[in-house]
Amino acid sequence: MLGVFIIGWLLGGGYLLLRSMGKQPLNPAAKLPRCVGAALLAGLAGAFSGGVLYMLLAAIGKGLGVNLGALGTIVAVAAMIAVGYLVIYAMFNLPFGNVLRAAGPAIFGTILLAVVIGAAAAIPARYATQARRRREMAIHRLQRIHRAILMYEIKTGRSPKTLSALTEEHYIDASALRHPCAPQSAVGYFYLPARSVPYMEQTKAVRVCELVPSGDGRLLLFANGRCRWYSSREAQRILDLPENAAFASALAAARAN
Description:
The protein is of the alpha+beta class.
């Protein structure tokens, strides 16, 4: 994708600039190599200046505790256009007004190409970031559930029959039982009472897992309190272990209902 962008940037921007410059009188400097070079330098200078301003505003926003992403994007694009015009103005012997008219299509085409490719890359990245945050939140909630189970066992000498019992007896807040991907469900995790083991003891016995897999995998909480995300195939392989036969059977029955 980066290679496509660079080729489109140089050839597309250079060609558009050549066509625009060719309409200007007495301009022998308007040759394709020079126009490609102008597109390259204008793009690099514009991207650098816009990137610096965006990062500066992002740092200011972080310090103030506000999100200046939208303002940073607007300022960065304005800086890219302004610096791009200045570079082209310096490379061609034309009045500044003529440069604005001549370089406009090339710079606009370059920016449009950057926006299209940036959006194509940013949308999947945004979804991936959201999925990672939901997974991290789910892991945090599973860890809270494990701590609540331990406190319940210490106080009562037995494991809770259901996760709801932890909220009914105020060991954990009800919001911790909701899965980030399905907040409408009161309980988003499946639990089967099992004996706790020390954290340092190695075990594959599953105590809690996501009721519905998130994405292409599943979070598993083991009896020793360790929590980890596995791909669907890996998670199923663990659930197929003999020590998890009862858990897997109960999980299948719960999902069927």
